[in-house]
Amino acid sequence: MRVDAHVHFCDASRFDELEKYRRVLSLDRVFLVSLPSLQKGNYNDAVRFALEKDPEHYHGYGCFDFRRKDFTDQIRSMNDQGFSGLKLWIGKPSIQREMGYGLLSGELEEAIRTAGSLGFGLIVHIADPPAFWEGQGEYSKGYPPFDSYIDVLDRFLTRYHQIRCTAAHLAFLAGGVEKLGSLMERHENLFLDTAPGRWFYKEIGDDPERYMSFFEKYRQRIVIGSDSMFFDSQDMLFPYHSLEDNIGIFRTMENFFFEEGSIDDPFPRPDAGKIQNLNLPVQVRELMIGDNIYELR
């Protein structure tokens, strides 16, 4: 079993590219993740298109349309349409401000609990890379500190402790592995995915022994996710990623975690250079890139 647990499929016209992505990378399952938009509502229709075309290989995480207030009805509709999970992007500071809701907003509680009762899993984006709070970073002025968002995740996991929750991007705590480990110990419902596959490489590569121990300890609760993006070329939400870009993102991530050698640091930092691969043991690889996905669907 080979999986990618975090792909943003947001343009139905690129389905043939998505299929090629899956075949080139020999992926048996791909989890397609929608996002919210105040202009479009969300990208659920694109994900649903893929689910209807090939339900054997694709699973879908839908997103709320925050222009509407019928959140519980939206969850039931997603369930009827074949979605198997809910993406909550409102832990991201800029999106929380734009949408007007946070992970602990009371207006969402009934809907999230309904999602759990229907067997949905959650993918939660919390915070952003800590560098965004430094210097003249995007969140350096007018936003709460980074740690306050991690506290929100802690409270969220306690509130919804009966619902399986995946913190995307290693919860942006690759530079704080002790805190990440503490969250994993306190919350048995917490999984992690490795998306987006570029910001954390240096943090992990600078202390490989500690991170090898972390990944081995929690190997049954971490899944590979690339954060690959299939948007319309005119969509300005993210820079355009070609098929080749997306394949390269996955291969860089896979090489870093599971192969010998080194990679070029893909994060645009002034001191970017070579980073030593982690080269995790094969038994960890088999869980992260495949078997753990049975826990998520």
Shape: globular
Low-confidence stretches: none
CATH 2nd-level architecture:
Alpha-Beta Barrel
List the domain count as a whole number: 1
Strand content: 15-25%
Q: How many strands, what sense, and barrel or not for the largest sheet?
A: 9 strands, parallel
Strand order of the largest sheet: 10-9-8-7-6-5-2-1-11
Classify the helix fraction into a percent range. Answer: 25-40%
Description:
By secondary structure, the protein is α/β, with parallel strands linked by helices. The protein has a single domain (3-295), classed as Metal-dependent hydrolases (TIM Barrel, Alpha-Beta Barrel). It contains eleven helices and 13 strands. The strands form three sheets. The chain has a nine-stranded parallel sheet with strand order 10-9-8-7-6-5-2-1-11. Helix 7 (177-186) links the parallel strand 8 (165-167) and strand 9. Helix 3 (71-80) runs parallel beside helix 5. The mean pLDDT is 94.
Keywords:
297 residues, single chain, TIM Barrel, two-stranded antiparallel sheet, alpha/beta, 36% helix, globular
